[in-house]
Amino acid sequence: ALSDIMLSTRATAARYTTDGGWTIAAKQRGQDAPTHLTSRVLVSATSALSCGRLLSTITFDDEAKTEEAAQSLGFMQSQAAAVESPACWALMVAFDTPLPLPFDAAVVDPVEPLAWISYNSSKPGRPAPPPHCYVIHAGPEWSRSAGDAPRETVAAELLGHLQRFTNATTTPVYAEAHKWHNAYPLNPWGSRCFSDAALGLVVGGDWCVGPRAHDAYDSGLAMAAQAASILGSTHN
Fold first, then answer.
1. Cα separation of 183 and 193, whole Å?
2. Per DSSP, what are the bridge partners of residue 35?
3. What per-residue confidence (pLDDT) applies to 15?
4. Cβ contacts of 47 within 8 Å, gap of 6 or more
5. Rounded to whole angstroms, how far apart are CA atoms 196 and 75?
6. What global pTM score does this model have?
7. What does the pLDDT read at residue 132?
8. Residue 152 contacts residue 126 (beta carbons within 8 Å)
9. HEC string of the chain?
10. Smallest Cα–Cα separation from 193: which of 215, 175, 177?
11. Which residues touch 2 (CB under 8 Å, ≥6 apart)?
12. Residue 76: per-residue pLDDT
């Protein structure tokens, strides 16, 4: 249920219990002590870094189960650790008039400096323009070179690249840069997800498939199917 969703919460540890389920320590922002949640299936739909971090915390009440699960857990951890996921600088920008672009969204240059341009105002359910809102993603190398530069500096540089690309000199009514960490899985796993039905454990995310939103969506569908299958076999 939607009422069961916990926001601003990090899963800090997981324990596999003797009754074949999971106890997850979940700590909300500003909370001193974690909340302990129970589940038959544990699904990690995070970045490779966060997934590996959670997998490393897993413990077992049954020592025999620890040895049995060692190979599966070790494989998942090694796959997550092998994925290189650098940061991505993004520009959120709005104009009173639309940019002269022949598309609503496009991969511009997978390398540099503008990797993705999206006309957010064209998405279903968004407020009718003006303003005309866009999201721009920089390529991984450009983002790496920008490092931890001030957001204002990054915003100005990306806006300059966008204006040169579109040959438009319109002054934006809003511009803000944001740095997305673990954004570009450069060497994805190559499988939509991985699951261990015996443990009730499913891991996945864009790092399994590729760097785009539809890759994360595709992995999410696969994880949901695996989790449903495990739950179905449990109740049969």
1. 18
2. 26
3. 96
4. 85, 181, 182, 205, 207
5. 11
6. 0.81
7. 96
8. no
9. CHHHCCCCEEEEEEEECCCCCEEEEEEECCCCCCEEEEECCEEEECCHHHHHHHHCCCEECCHHHHHHHHHHHHHHHHHHHHCCCCCEEEEEEEECCCCCCCCCEEECCCCCCEEEEEEHHHCCCCCCCCCEEEEEEECHHHHHHHCCCCHHHHHHHHHHHHHHHHCCCCCCCEEEEEEECCCCCCCCCCCCEEEECCCCEEEECHHHHCCCHHHHHHHHHHHHHHHHHHHHHHHC
10. 215
11. none
12. 95
CA atoms within a 13 Å half-sphere pointing along the CA-CB vector of 64: 2
Cα three-residue angle 35-20-226, rounded to 5 degrees = 90
Please check whether residue 48 is in contact with residue 62, taking contact to mean a CB–CB distance below 8 angstroms.
no
Place of tokens 């569908």: 221
- Torsion angle (degrees, nearest 10) of CA 183, 199, 28, 225: 60
Name the pLDDT band for 169 (thresholds 50, 70, 90): confident
Condensed to tens digits (0 to 9), the pLDDT of residues 92-125 reads: 999 999 999 999 999 887 556 899 999 999 999 9
Quick: pLDDT tens for 71-100. 999 999 999 999 999 999 999 999 999 999
